[in-house]
Amino acid sequence: MAIDAATVRKVARLARIAEPEDRLEPLAREISGILAWIEQLEEVDTDGVEPMTTSVAATLPMREDVVTEGGDPAKVLANAPKAAKDFFVVPKVVE
Amino acid sequence: MRGARRYLHSMSETTNTKLIRGRTGDWEIVLGLEVHAQVASNAKLFSGAAVGAGAEPNSQVSLVDAAMPGMLPVINRRCVEQAVRTGLGLKAQINLKSRFDRKNYFYPDLPQGYQISQFKDPVVGEGEVIVERDDGSTFVVGIERLHLEQDAGKSLHDQDPNATYVDLNRAGTALMEIVSKPHMRSSEEAAAYVKKLRTILIYLGTCDGDMEKGNLRADVNVSVCRPGGHDRFRETGSFSHLGTRCEIKNVNSFRYIQQAIEYEARRQIEILEDGGSINQETRLFDPGKGETRSMRSKEEAHDYRYFPDPDLLPLELDPAWVKAIEDSLPELPDAKKARLQSQYGLSAYDAGVLIIEQDKADFYELAARGRDAKLTSNWVTNELAAKLSASHQDFADSPIGPGAIAELVTLIEQGVISSKIAKDVFERMWAGEGAPGDIVEKQGLTQMSDTGELEAIIDKLIAENPGQAAAVKDKPQAIGWFVGQVMKATGGKGNPGVVNGLLRGKLGLG
Amino acid sequence: MTVLTDLTLKAALDGLASKSFSAEELTRAHVAAVEAARPLNAFILETPDKAVDMAKASDARRARGEAGRLDGAPLGIKDLFCTEGVRTTACSKILGDFKPTYESTVTANLWRDGAVMLGKLNLDEFAMGSSNETSAFGPVVNPWKIDRELTPGGSSGGSAAAVAAGLCLGATATDTGGSIRQPASFTGTVGIKPTYGRCSRWGIVAFASSLDQAGPIARTVEDAAILMTSMAGHDVKDSTSLDVEVPDFSQFVGKSVKGLRIGIPKQYRVDGMPAEIEKLWEQGIAWLKEAGCEIVEVSLPHTKYALPAYYIIAPAEASSNLARYDGMRYGLRVEGANLTETYENSRAAGFGEEVKRRILIGTYVLSAGYYDAYYLKALKVRRRIADDFDQAFGKVDALLTPTAPSAAFGLGENADDPLAMYLNDIFTVTVNLAGLPGMSLPGGLDAQGLPLGLQLIGRPLDEGTLFSLGGAIEKAADFQAKPAKWW
Ligand SMILES: [Mg+2]
Ligand SMILES: [Zn+2]
Asked: What's the predicted TM-score (pTM) here?
């Protein structure tokens, strides 16, 4: 399925990536090309095939309910672009 | 899997229609709730950081919670167990195979850029909750599902005029999202449902139910339709009979739930009556204004792109483990209510009032053993409950213990004190003056049953009021005046039964 | 005199054990080689002081008789592995100067066994690429050079180039669609992507969680086996980590392969494949026959659909995995007028073109209305591909294929054509989708004098057989060629 510039704009917004207007068309063309190639998957008969999300033939391992981490805000904030009073500081969120 | 889709209740116990009058006719409200209940656990759902409010900012945060590069989730067994326990308590289907999905969206208090939740295959399927109304009648709310998911962190908007502060202590805490069917028909029913659900969770020990801390909060789905729409929905299962719903997010008190619903239903009716239509949207309740308003920022382009979390494998439960959890369930509110009715002969209403708080029911049972069940129930649910609530205390930390109430009831039963005197004794107990027996003794509040002493008082009364005494012959109810006078003379201590008997004899009423 | 940087890992460990040289001497020789090789751009962060300190500590351990399996061995670490206190970037601007406060499990395992870190190695940004050209630090140059500069392949281009050029005795790498094996093929080195779940993913910057797997790149099959033995192991911090014993993989090298049945998948004979690669494959078959293997033709009918399925699954997972790079808690932040703009600016400035393209594709295929047609379909095709292998492994013990459809190509030659670039992984990506172990080892040189690799594919957890077969091919091929030192 070919996608257009408007779709690229929408998807870029969803992905929170600023794409300048003049990049939308070229991106739409590139991505459409890739999607067209991907669409050969339609040739594969997958009726009744169970989707495969992992190659691990095991079930979810569980941890015990024990506190083993935390207590070190400095470690959590060590790489923060902005922090104050042990909080992350981010642009004002308007609800 | 447990085949537990058991609707045991007759139609008489379904919900009550409460109509709202509009300009163009009547409307009915249809309500479905998504309750987020914080799982009682030590550590978070997918990390080893501690759970709990009140800690220093970012001090209960693991590298996983902060979504550092390369960090991976590992599920907490206790949280799964709590979800299963809750499912069993809701008489719901336990899905032995479930899985976790990612719900993708950007928000500063959502470090991963996605919430790990269960979208397609939740751990718990359909169940039901029996809910008591204020008048003691009951109705059934169907449970659609219960799933496990991560909570987000906290954004603080008041620390800085130009910035938001983010604390990730809450990020990654396990939540159970309990989704009801749209089975509630009034704000009272919605509040009663949350109240009952909260009671069940507290009995199960799976959530502390602290709504003030936000550990239990509700998303309320409100729609309105013309009368009969909901019945047709219940008959056919088709949502087409219902109106478009709006979801009011994160309401965290019974009062706000009711206010939000009342406001929202009115708002929708006004729009519809003006010929408009309802936008399916997410709204926020503003307790200050008592209004709901649209959350535009969240509304814009929400496409959560759910997909199975590739960092996690399918969650498979051992049926023996589920069975062991089931075997360890405590007596739940409905069972306790039934037992209180049969064991103590209480009415459904009284039993219902007692079981809504586990501590209250436990208190009652300790106090009532071998005593007048109804009388004990009244003292527990009226006098003591009122005192506790006025002083913001719980039955668990009541300054008057069940033994003291038992003693008080015994004094009444044995005729040592009258009910009226008992109120005085109770006040003194509350004031910390000691055990009821000691108070009665010290204050000389023992009921006068000594016939000689009472006879002297009565004889004197009749002698001083011959006219009144004569009148009683024609008008037997006038005996009340004499009873009152005797009580006055005895300072309320005259045993009413004895006083009555003596008066009847002396006044010639046989 | 021995040139310390020419030694195999095995020979170096033997030399350390016999006290022919110290870990400090060995390390200093490699530190010097790293410095001299800067034109290759293989290392994007050199940690010589740390290396020498670690080497001295190793010598002290050895003096106390406490030397571990890899004690004193200088290694390079792909910059996708988080290293405590040492800048980790995934070769993306978005991570800025990110310094992890933690150590990845795989690298921690290496340090536990006494290895020495020389520094961090270049890669395609977030491991997305097949030529190392998407790196924010610029491409790696393949030490194998002809008339022009060549790519070492990708994404583990820095790892492969460093090992081929003698800058380290071995390197960590990761493989999501071929990122260990294709660079190994392009540089005449040995690389193995173990069974999914063999190596912990904890602390490795994620690209596509269900496909990512760490493994070593080394100069010999035995060296790769030694490194694998240290890197692998169950990790309770990774829910997809396999709770299985890790054998000493080096035991398998040199074991007889007589009687093993080797499958030759006919679908790997693709149109336009250079004759030399076809010839090498035939040569590989002949070597294994001579070693006593039985050759069986097998069919993997869904092979051609592996790449398109991969280019849905990997970008989908990546679009979500990379959402955490948002400029809020670490890494690059480019402020905008409001929160949304800050997100958008940070991510636009922080991610390179290929990463953005994949995030957009991944976002699109997961979005409402397209999930079933793309993502779900790809997961079903993935199952078909895995089933093909299951069937084949009913008949054979391992498969032999070429690693890549070409030898190393010139830098910039495929840069403008994403599809042409994606085709590099045509033979390797099936293995990731099925979660199988796959090894690439050099089979010979093409007419230009560039190395070509052969790939061995095994049953889940049967890396041992791959090491035995790899050892047999290595012995028969007697690949001694080395890139001429031009840097
Ligand atoms: Mg909700
Ligand atoms: Zn939720």
From this structure: 0.92
